[in-house]
UniProtKB/TrEMBL annotation:
It comes from Halomicronema hongdechloris C2206. InterPro entries: CobW-like_C. It comes from the Bacteria. SUPFAM superfamilies: Hypothetical protein YjiA, C-terminal domain. This is CobW C-terminal domain-containing protein. Pfam families: CobW_C (PF07683). Residues 138-226 form the CobW C-terminal domain.
Length: 249
């Protein structure tokens, strides 16, 4: 079964796919086109379901092999992408749209086999900005990161409709931050990944912000102010190792 999932910005597409994967007894494939070097949702899926195969930059021939083998495949389409996929033109597939009642129009009804209630989006697509940045190797001071995130989501750098990111913290944990302006507050989820307590993490982290009138330069500069220097990171990690040694003793 091939499933294509689409919807407005912040509708809850990845969350719906995670719910589907949780009910599947067999391996599956998750495809997330158009994310470049910032595969936030793919990393979230991998952390939750390590056996799910991720496709976002692999050759099309490899994906065709999975499709021919009959492995369940989920395509997640970002709000900025076209909903028609040439690769699937002659292949049976179901189309699922996650759309709030306020955002439903004839286009979604015509495209989708199933329309599911999603989060409301008030984003003006004509004025929308998307800012992405890979952060791999960077580790954050939690209080500084929290201040930055509150400023970001409360409008200090422009009108933010959607923000998400994966951040490495000083204690070795990796967290997924998630903000949708039609929902209360932000969601913070620790990813099921090994704690990284020696040196800089050699795994993906990054941020994506969608909104209008964004001051991208200010976002980038303020975020950099939250990075831990090599000396501070080494100090944090030495303290963690000392604490672990005391616990073992």
């Amino acid at each position: 079964m091939i499933t294509v999932v689409a919807g407005p910005c912040g509708a809850g597409k990845t969350t719906w796919i995670l719910q589907e994967l949780a009910q599947m007894p067999t391996p599956a494939v998750y495809v997330t086109p158009g994310v470049g070097t910032v595969p936030i949702d793919a990393t979230r899926v991998t952390a939750r379901f390590p056996k799910v195969e991720i496709f976002h930059r692999q050759p099309e021939t490899e994906l065709l092999q999975r499709l021919s083998a009959g492995i369940p495949v989920y395509f997640e389409l970002g709000f900025q992408l076209e909903t028609d996929i040439p690769l699937l033109e002659n292949r049976p597939h179901r189309r699922v749209a996650l759309v709030a009642q306020e955002n439903r129009d004839a286009g979604w009804q015509l495209w989708a086999n199933a329309v599911i209630q999603g989060n409301q989006s008030t984003l003006d697509l004509q004025a929308a900005q998307m800012w992405r940045a890979p952060l791999s190797g960077q580790v954050f001071d939690p209080p500084s990161l929290d201040t930055f995130w509150q400023e970001l989501t409360q409008g200090a750098y422009g009108e933010v409709h959607r923000a998400k990111g994966i951040f490495e913290l000083a204690d070795g944990q990796a967290f997924h931050f998630d903000f949708v302006n039609s929902l209360p507050g932000s969601a913070y989820t620790e990813l099921n990944l090994p704690r990284w307590v020696q040196g800089r993490p050699n795994r993906f982290s990054g941020i994506e912000v969608v909104g209008q009138g964004l001051d991208e330069g200010a976002i980038a500069t303020t975020l950099k102010d939250c990075y831990l220097s090599d000396s501070l990171l080494a100090s944090y990690q030495a303290s963690l190792q000392d604490s672990h040694s005391l616990e073992v003793a």
